[in-house]
Amino acid sequence: MMNGHAHTRVDTGFQVMVKPVGPVCNLSCTYCFYRYKQDLLPPAHDWNMSIETLEIFVRQYLERQPPGHPVQFVWQGGEPCLRGIDFFSQAVTFQQRYRTSGQEISNALQTNTTLITDEWARFLHAEDFLVGVSIDGPQAIHDHYRKDAHAQGSFDRVMSGLDFLKTRGVRVNAMTCVTDVSEHEPRALYTFLKEHFDFIQFIPIVEEKTFRKEAPFLKKSRKWERKSPKSRSDLVTPWSVSPGGYGTFLSSVFDAWVRQDVGTISVQVFEETLAHWLSMPGGLCIFSPTCGRALVMEHNGDVYSCDHFVYQPYRLGNIREKRLEELADHPAQVRFGRDKLLRLPSQCRKCEYGALCAGGCPKHRILRTPSGERELNYLCEAYRAFFSFSEPAMRFMARELSEGRPPSGIMDHLRRAKR
Hints:
Layout: E1 15-18, H1 51-64, E2 71-75, H2 85-98, E3 105-111, H3 118-126, E4 130-134, H4 139-145, H5 155-167, E5 171-178, H6 186-196, E6 199-204, H7 243-260, E7 266-267, H8 268-277, E8 294-297, E9 302-304, E10 315-318, H9 324-328, H10 331-342, H11 346-350, H12 354-357, H13 380-402, H14 409-418
Parallel strand pairs: 1-2, 1-8, 2-3, 3-4, 4-5, 5-6, 6-7
Antiparallel strand pairs: 8-9, 9-10
Helix pairs in contact: 1-2, 3-5, 7-13, 8-13
Protein backbone atom coordinates (compact mmCIF):
# COMPACT_ATOMS: atom_id res chain seq x y z
CA MET A 1 0.00 0.00 0.00
CA MET A 2 2.82 2.40 0.77
CA ASN A 3 6.39 2.70 -0.34
CA GLY A 4 9.30 2.58 2.08
CA HIS A 5 10.90 5.85 1.07
CA ALA A 6 11.03 9.33 2.53
CA HIS A 7 7.78 10.99 3.56
CA THR A 8 5.79 12.61 0.79
CA ARG A 9 2.13 13.46 0.46
CA VAL A 10 0.36 10.23 -0.38
CA ASP A 11 -1.58 10.24 -3.65
CA THR A 12 -3.62 7.13 -2.97
CA GLY A 13 -6.60 7.00 -0.67
CA PHE A 14 -6.53 5.86 2.90
CA GLN A 15 -9.13 4.07 4.97
CA VAL A 16 -10.38 4.80 8.46
CA MET A 17 -12.16 2.24 10.59
CA VAL A 18 -14.67 4.14 12.72
CA LYS A 19 -15.77 3.15 16.24
CA PRO A 20 -19.19 4.81 16.83
CA VAL A 21 -19.32 3.50 20.41
CA GLY A 22 -15.62 2.94 20.96
CA PRO A 23 -14.92 -0.46 22.56
CA VAL A 24 -18.36 -0.88 24.13
CA CYS A 25 -20.09 -4.16 23.29
CA ASN A 26 -23.13 -6.13 24.41
CA LEU A 27 -21.12 -9.36 24.35
CA SER A 28 -18.15 -10.38 26.46
CA CYS A 29 -16.13 -12.65 24.18
CA THR A 30 -13.23 -14.30 25.95
CA TYR A 31 -10.66 -13.46 23.32
CA CYS A 32 -11.73 -9.87 22.61
CA PHE A 33 -8.74 -7.56 22.87
CA TYR A 34 -10.76 -4.41 22.27
CA ARG A 35 -13.22 -4.12 25.14
CA TYR A 36 -10.28 -3.58 27.49
CA LYS A 37 -9.56 -0.33 25.65
CA GLN A 38 -12.09 1.26 27.98
CA ASP A 39 -9.29 1.27 30.56
CA LEU A 40 -6.76 2.81 28.15
CA LEU A 41 -8.81 5.40 26.30
CA PRO A 42 -9.65 8.79 27.85
CA PRO A 43 -12.44 8.39 30.44
CA ALA A 44 -15.88 8.80 28.91
CA HIS A 45 -19.27 9.34 30.50
CA ASP A 46 -20.83 8.64 27.13
CA TRP A 47 -19.13 6.35 24.63
CA ASN A 48 -21.48 7.43 21.83
CA MET A 49 -19.87 9.38 19.00
CA SER A 50 -21.49 12.79 18.72
CA ILE A 51 -23.27 13.87 15.55
CA GLU A 52 -20.86 16.81 15.37
CA THR A 53 -17.84 14.50 15.35
CA LEU A 54 -19.56 12.30 12.77
CA GLU A 55 -20.13 15.25 10.44
CA ILE A 56 -16.53 16.46 10.77
CA PHE A 57 -15.26 13.00 9.95
CA VAL A 58 -17.51 12.40 6.94
CA ARG A 59 -16.70 15.80 5.44
CA GLN A 60 -12.94 15.49 5.92
CA TYR A 61 -12.82 11.86 4.82
CA LEU A 62 -14.59 12.60 1.55
CA GLU A 63 -12.59 15.77 0.89
CA ARG A 64 -9.28 13.93 1.20
CA GLN A 65 -9.99 11.01 -1.13
CA PRO A 66 -8.59 11.23 -4.69
CA PRO A 67 -11.07 12.19 -7.43
CA GLY A 68 -12.95 9.17 -8.74
CA HIS A 69 -11.52 6.96 -5.99
CA PRO A 70 -14.09 4.56 -4.45
CA VAL A 71 -14.70 5.56 -0.85
CA GLN A 72 -15.68 2.95 1.71
CA PHE A 73 -16.85 3.84 5.20
CA VAL A 74 -16.08 1.07 7.68
CA TRP A 75 -18.05 1.00 10.93
CA GLN A 76 -16.88 -1.28 13.73
CA GLY A 77 -16.76 -1.62 17.51
CA GLY A 78 -17.24 -2.86 20.10
CA GLU A 79 -20.71 -3.35 18.73
CA PRO A 80 -21.58 -0.43 16.42
CA CYS A 81 -25.30 -1.26 16.37
CA LEU A 82 -25.46 0.04 19.94
CA ARG A 83 -25.30 3.53 18.40
CA GLY A 84 -28.69 3.02 16.76
CA ILE A 85 -30.16 3.28 13.28
CA ASP A 86 -30.60 7.05 13.47
CA PHE A 87 -26.83 7.55 13.76
CA PHE A 88 -26.13 5.58 10.60
CA SER A 89 -29.00 7.25 8.78
CA GLN A 90 -27.40 10.58 9.64
CA ALA A 91 -24.05 9.27 8.39
CA VAL A 92 -25.61 8.46 5.01
CA THR A 93 -27.15 11.95 4.90
CA PHE A 94 -23.75 13.54 5.53
CA GLN A 95 -22.17 11.31 2.88
CA GLN A 96 -24.61 12.57 0.26
CA ARG A 97 -24.18 16.14 1.41
CA TYR A 98 -20.38 16.19 1.17
CA ARG A 99 -19.69 13.79 -1.68
CA THR A 100 -18.12 15.25 -4.80
CA SER A 101 -19.01 14.44 -8.38
CA GLY A 102 -17.92 10.95 -9.36
CA GLN A 103 -17.32 9.67 -5.83
CA GLU A 104 -18.64 6.14 -5.32
CA ILE A 105 -19.54 5.69 -1.67
CA SER A 106 -20.10 2.39 0.11
CA ASN A 107 -20.61 1.38 3.72
CA ALA A 108 -19.44 -1.72 5.59
CA LEU A 109 -20.70 -2.57 9.05
CA GLN A 110 -19.08 -5.18 11.29
CA THR A 111 -21.55 -6.61 13.81
CA ASN A 112 -22.24 -9.62 15.98
CA THR A 113 -25.88 -9.39 14.65
CA THR A 114 -27.41 -10.04 18.09
CA LEU A 115 -29.07 -6.61 17.94
CA ILE A 116 -30.23 -6.91 14.34
CA THR A 117 -34.01 -6.63 13.93
CA ASP A 118 -36.18 -6.48 10.86
CA GLU A 119 -36.03 -2.67 11.09
CA TRP A 120 -32.23 -2.80 11.04
CA ALA A 121 -32.27 -5.21 8.10
CA ARG A 122 -34.63 -2.99 6.12
CA PHE A 123 -32.38 0.02 6.69
CA LEU A 124 -29.16 -1.82 5.81
CA HIS A 125 -30.69 -3.17 2.62
CA ALA A 126 -32.14 0.20 1.60
CA GLU A 127 -28.74 1.86 2.02
CA ASP A 128 -26.84 -1.11 0.53
CA PHE A 129 -24.57 -1.72 3.52
CA LEU A 130 -22.21 -4.67 3.34
CA VAL A 131 -22.45 -6.45 6.69
CA GLY A 132 -19.60 -8.42 8.16
CA VAL A 133 -21.01 -11.00 10.56
CA SER A 134 -18.84 -12.04 13.49
CA ILE A 135 -19.44 -15.78 13.64
CA ASP A 136 -16.95 -18.46 14.57
CA GLY A 137 -18.63 -21.53 13.14
CA PRO A 138 -21.27 -24.03 14.27
CA GLN A 139 -22.74 -23.57 17.74
CA ALA A 140 -20.29 -25.68 19.75
CA ILE A 141 -17.33 -23.75 18.33
CA HIS A 142 -18.97 -20.33 18.29
CA ASP A 143 -20.33 -20.46 21.84
CA HIS A 144 -17.05 -21.65 23.33
CA TYR A 145 -15.67 -18.10 23.43
CA ARG A 146 -18.38 -15.79 22.07
CA LYS A 147 -20.51 -15.35 25.19
CA ASP A 148 -22.44 -12.50 26.77
CA ALA A 149 -21.89 -10.88 30.16
CA HIS A 150 -23.85 -13.71 31.79
CA ALA A 151 -21.56 -16.35 30.26
CA GLN A 152 -24.34 -17.47 27.90
CA GLY A 153 -23.52 -18.42 24.32
CA SER A 154 -24.57 -16.01 21.57
CA PHE A 155 -25.01 -18.40 18.63
CA ASP A 156 -28.82 -18.49 18.55
CA ARG A 157 -29.04 -14.69 18.66
CA VAL A 158 -26.39 -14.35 15.95
CA MET A 159 -28.30 -16.71 13.67
CA SER A 160 -31.56 -14.86 14.36
CA GLY A 161 -29.96 -11.58 13.30
CA LEU A 162 -28.43 -13.26 10.26
CA ASP A 163 -31.86 -14.55 9.26
CA PHE A 164 -33.25 -10.99 9.33
CA LEU A 165 -30.38 -9.81 7.13
CA LYS A 166 -30.73 -12.60 4.58
CA THR A 167 -34.51 -12.34 4.46
CA ARG A 168 -34.19 -8.67 3.49
CA GLY A 169 -31.44 -9.35 0.97
CA VAL A 170 -28.61 -7.61 2.84
CA ARG A 171 -25.16 -8.50 1.54
CA VAL A 172 -23.29 -10.44 4.24
CA ASN A 173 -19.77 -11.76 4.80
CA ALA A 174 -18.45 -14.09 7.50
CA MET A 175 -15.71 -12.76 9.77
CA THR A 176 -14.47 -15.86 11.58
CA CYS A 177 -11.89 -15.95 14.35
CA VAL A 178 -9.67 -19.04 14.47
CA THR A 179 -8.70 -20.09 17.98
CA ASP A 180 -7.13 -23.00 19.81
CA VAL A 181 -10.53 -24.70 19.64
CA SER A 182 -11.50 -24.13 16.02
CA GLU A 183 -8.04 -24.92 14.64
CA HIS A 184 -8.94 -28.59 15.19
CA GLU A 185 -12.20 -28.44 13.20
CA PRO A 186 -11.34 -26.89 9.81
CA ARG A 187 -13.63 -29.01 7.63
CA ALA A 188 -16.67 -28.81 9.93
CA LEU A 189 -16.22 -25.07 10.34
CA TYR A 190 -15.82 -24.45 6.61
CA THR A 191 -18.79 -26.67 5.74
CA PHE A 192 -20.96 -24.70 8.13
CA LEU A 193 -19.80 -21.28 6.92
CA LYS A 194 -20.31 -21.94 3.24
CA GLU A 195 -23.91 -22.97 3.92
CA HIS A 196 -24.58 -19.39 5.02
CA PHE A 197 -21.99 -17.18 3.32
CA ASP A 198 -20.26 -16.88 -0.03
CA PHE A 199 -17.41 -14.73 1.33
CA ILE A 200 -15.33 -15.82 4.33
CA GLN A 201 -12.55 -14.06 6.18
CA PHE A 202 -10.45 -15.96 8.70
CA ILE A 203 -8.87 -14.01 11.55
CA PRO A 204 -6.20 -15.86 13.56
CA ILE A 205 -6.39 -15.06 17.26
CA VAL A 206 -2.92 -14.32 18.61
CA GLU A 207 -2.72 -12.46 21.91
CA GLU A 208 0.17 -12.13 24.31
CA LYS A 209 -0.74 -12.75 27.92
CA THR A 210 -0.21 -9.12 28.92
CA PHE A 211 -2.46 -7.67 26.21
CA ARG A 212 -5.14 -6.50 28.65
CA LYS A 213 -2.79 -4.23 30.55
CA GLU A 214 -0.50 -2.72 27.96
CA ALA A 215 1.03 -3.06 24.55
CA PRO A 216 4.02 -5.30 25.29
CA PHE A 217 5.43 -4.76 21.81
CA LEU A 218 6.00 -1.09 22.70
CA LYS A 219 8.55 -1.84 25.39
CA LYS A 220 12.04 -0.98 24.22
CA SER A 221 13.50 -2.98 27.10
CA ARG A 222 11.42 -6.04 26.39
CA LYS A 223 13.15 -9.37 26.81
CA TRP A 224 12.75 -11.49 23.72
CA GLU A 225 13.07 -14.97 25.14
CA ARG A 226 11.02 -17.04 22.70
CA LYS A 227 12.91 -18.63 19.85
CA SER A 228 10.26 -21.11 18.76
CA PRO A 229 6.45 -20.96 18.66
CA LYS A 230 6.23 -24.64 19.57
CA SER A 231 6.29 -23.92 23.31
CA ARG A 232 3.81 -21.12 23.78
CA SER A 233 2.08 -21.61 27.13
CA ASP A 234 3.83 -18.68 28.82
CA LEU A 235 3.88 -16.45 25.72
CA VAL A 236 0.30 -16.20 24.47
CA THR A 237 -3.18 -16.63 25.88
CA PRO A 238 -4.70 -20.12 26.00
CA TRP A 239 -7.25 -19.21 23.33
CA SER A 240 -4.58 -18.20 20.81
CA VAL A 241 -4.29 -20.37 17.72
CA SER A 242 -1.08 -22.38 17.48
CA PRO A 243 1.26 -21.80 14.50
CA GLY A 244 1.14 -25.46 13.49
CA GLY A 245 -2.59 -25.62 14.02
CA TYR A 246 -3.30 -22.55 11.92
CA GLY A 247 -1.14 -23.84 9.09
CA THR A 248 -3.00 -27.15 9.10
CA PHE A 249 -6.32 -25.30 9.37
CA LEU A 250 -5.66 -23.14 6.30
CA SER A 251 -4.31 -26.05 4.29
CA SER A 252 -7.27 -28.27 5.15
CA VAL A 253 -9.83 -25.61 4.25
CA PHE A 254 -7.92 -24.81 1.07
CA ASP A 255 -7.94 -28.48 0.06
CA ALA A 256 -11.73 -28.55 0.37
CA TRP A 257 -12.18 -25.18 -1.36
CA VAL A 258 -9.90 -25.87 -4.31
CA ARG A 259 -11.67 -29.16 -5.05
CA GLN A 260 -15.27 -27.96 -4.70
CA ASP A 261 -15.80 -24.22 -4.42
CA VAL A 262 -13.49 -22.16 -6.64
CA GLY A 263 -15.63 -19.52 -8.29
CA THR A 264 -18.58 -19.93 -5.91
CA ILE A 265 -17.10 -19.34 -2.43
CA SER A 266 -14.61 -16.54 -1.81
CA VAL A 267 -12.07 -17.04 0.98
CA GLN A 268 -10.10 -13.87 1.49
CA VAL A 269 -6.72 -15.37 2.34
CA PHE A 270 -6.88 -17.68 -0.70
CA GLU A 271 -7.79 -14.90 -3.11
CA GLU A 272 -5.07 -12.65 -1.67
CA THR A 273 -2.52 -15.41 -2.14
CA LEU A 274 -3.64 -15.98 -5.73
CA ALA A 275 -3.33 -12.25 -6.41
CA HIS A 276 0.29 -12.39 -5.31
CA TRP A 277 0.98 -15.35 -7.62
CA LEU A 278 -0.40 -13.15 -10.41
CA SER A 279 1.88 -10.28 -9.34
CA MET A 280 -1.18 -8.20 -8.60
CA PRO A 281 -1.49 -5.89 -5.59
CA GLY A 282 -3.60 -7.38 -2.84
CA GLY A 283 -5.92 -5.64 -0.45
CA LEU A 284 -4.94 -7.44 2.75
CA CYS A 285 -2.60 -5.27 4.80
CA ILE A 286 -0.89 -8.14 6.63
CA PHE A 287 0.55 -9.39 3.33
CA SER A 288 1.58 -5.96 2.06
CA PRO A 289 5.27 -4.94 2.27
CA THR A 290 4.35 -1.80 4.21
CA CYS A 291 1.24 -0.63 6.01
CA GLY A 292 -0.12 2.55 7.52
CA ARG A 293 -3.07 3.37 5.27
CA ALA A 294 -5.71 1.71 7.45
CA LEU A 295 -6.26 3.95 10.47
CA VAL A 296 -8.82 3.78 13.24
CA MET A 297 -10.91 6.57 14.76
CA GLU A 298 -12.42 6.27 18.21
CA HIS A 299 -15.78 7.67 19.31
CA ASN A 300 -14.23 10.96 20.46
CA GLY A 301 -12.40 11.68 17.20
CA ASP A 302 -8.98 10.40 18.29
CA VAL A 303 -7.13 8.77 15.39
CA TYR A 304 -4.62 5.94 15.86
CA SER A 305 -2.22 4.17 13.51
CA CYS A 306 -4.13 0.88 13.38
CA ASP A 307 -6.93 -1.04 15.05
CA HIS A 308 -4.34 -3.24 16.75
CA PHE A 309 -2.27 -0.28 17.94
CA VAL A 310 -4.75 1.83 19.89
CA TYR A 311 -2.18 2.84 22.49
CA GLN A 312 -0.97 6.31 23.40
CA PRO A 313 2.33 6.15 21.45
CA TYR A 314 0.29 5.54 18.29
CA ARG A 315 -2.23 8.33 18.79
CA LEU A 316 -1.86 10.67 15.81
CA GLY A 317 -4.26 13.36 17.01
CA ASN A 318 -7.92 14.32 16.97
CA ILE A 319 -9.95 15.42 13.95
CA ARG A 320 -11.24 18.38 15.95
CA GLU A 321 -7.67 19.65 16.26
CA LYS A 322 -6.08 18.52 12.99
CA ARG A 323 -7.49 17.67 9.63
CA LEU A 324 -7.82 13.98 8.86
CA GLU A 325 -5.47 14.21 5.90
CA GLU A 326 -2.75 15.64 8.16
CA LEU A 327 -3.14 12.69 10.49
CA ALA A 328 -3.15 10.11 7.69
CA ASP A 329 0.01 11.62 6.18
CA HIS A 330 1.68 12.42 9.49
CA PRO A 331 5.42 11.57 9.51
CA ALA A 332 4.82 9.27 12.51
CA GLN A 333 2.23 7.35 10.52
CA VAL A 334 4.47 7.07 7.48
CA ARG A 335 7.21 5.80 9.79
CA PHE A 336 4.79 3.28 11.28
CA GLY A 337 3.97 1.90 7.83
CA ARG A 338 7.57 1.90 6.64
CA ASP A 339 8.86 0.11 9.76
CA LYS A 340 6.98 -3.03 8.76
CA LEU A 341 9.48 -3.42 5.93
CA LEU A 342 12.56 -1.89 7.49
CA ARG A 343 12.39 -4.07 10.61
CA LEU A 344 11.82 -7.30 8.72
CA PRO A 345 14.28 -10.02 9.84
CA SER A 346 16.84 -11.17 7.30
CA GLN A 347 15.36 -14.67 7.55
CA CYS A 348 12.13 -13.29 6.12
CA ARG A 349 13.94 -11.39 3.37
CA LYS A 350 15.59 -14.63 2.25
CA CYS A 351 12.46 -16.78 2.62
CA GLU A 352 11.06 -18.30 -0.58
CA TYR A 353 7.62 -17.10 0.50
CA GLY A 354 8.75 -13.71 1.73
CA ALA A 355 7.00 -11.89 -1.10
CA LEU A 356 3.73 -13.63 -0.19
CA CYS A 357 3.90 -13.14 3.56
CA ALA A 358 5.77 -9.79 3.82
CA GLY A 359 6.37 -10.50 7.47
CA GLY A 360 2.69 -10.63 8.37
CA CYS A 361 0.97 -8.31 10.81
CA PRO A 362 3.39 -6.28 12.99
CA LYS A 363 1.27 -7.16 16.00
CA HIS A 364 2.15 -10.83 15.53
CA ARG A 365 5.90 -10.29 15.12
CA ILE A 366 6.74 -11.33 18.68
CA LEU A 367 9.42 -14.01 18.25
CA ARG A 368 13.14 -14.23 17.65
CA THR A 369 14.64 -16.02 14.67
CA PRO A 370 17.09 -18.90 15.36
CA SER A 371 19.91 -16.42 14.78
CA GLY A 372 18.53 -14.05 17.39
CA GLU A 373 16.85 -11.37 15.24
CA ARG A 374 13.71 -9.80 16.58
CA GLU A 375 10.26 -9.52 15.01
CA LEU A 376 9.74 -12.95 13.54
CA ASN A 377 6.02 -13.49 13.07
CA TYR A 378 4.38 -15.88 15.53
CA LEU A 379 2.50 -17.40 12.57
CA CYS A 380 5.59 -17.88 10.39
CA GLU A 381 5.30 -21.67 10.58
CA ALA A 382 1.61 -21.46 9.65
CA TYR A 383 2.13 -19.27 6.60
CA ARG A 384 5.05 -21.34 5.31
CA ALA A 385 2.99 -24.50 5.62
CA PHE A 386 0.00 -23.00 3.84
CA PHE A 387 1.97 -21.33 1.05
CA SER A 388 3.90 -24.55 0.40
CA PHE A 389 0.76 -26.70 0.40
CA SER A 390 -1.21 -24.37 -1.87
CA GLU A 391 1.61 -23.50 -4.29
CA PRO A 392 0.92 -26.14 -7.00
CA ALA A 393 -2.77 -25.27 -7.19
CA MET A 394 -2.07 -21.54 -6.98
CA ARG A 395 0.39 -21.75 -9.87
CA PHE A 396 -2.17 -23.68 -11.92
CA MET A 397 -4.93 -21.13 -11.25
CA ALA A 398 -2.59 -18.20 -11.94
CA ARG A 399 -1.66 -19.76 -15.29
CA GLU A 400 -5.32 -20.30 -16.16
CA LEU A 401 -6.13 -16.67 -15.41
CA SER A 402 -3.13 -15.34 -17.31
CA GLU A 403 -4.27 -17.33 -20.36
CA GLY A 404 -7.83 -16.04 -20.15
CA ARG A 405 -9.44 -19.06 -18.55
CA PRO A 406 -11.32 -19.16 -15.23
CA PRO A 407 -9.43 -20.48 -12.19
CA SER A 408 -12.27 -22.91 -11.52
CA GLY A 409 -10.60 -25.21 -14.07
CA ILE A 410 -8.46 -26.41 -11.19
CA MET A 411 -11.38 -28.50 -9.94
CA ASP A 412 -11.63 -30.55 -13.14
CA HIS A 413 -7.84 -30.80 -13.22
CA LEU A 414 -7.76 -32.27 -9.71
CA ARG A 415 -10.62 -34.67 -10.46
CA ARG A 416 -8.80 -35.98 -13.53
CA ALA A 417 -5.60 -36.33 -11.54
CA LYS A 418 -7.33 -38.68 -9.11
CA ARG A 419 -8.38 -41.13 -11.82
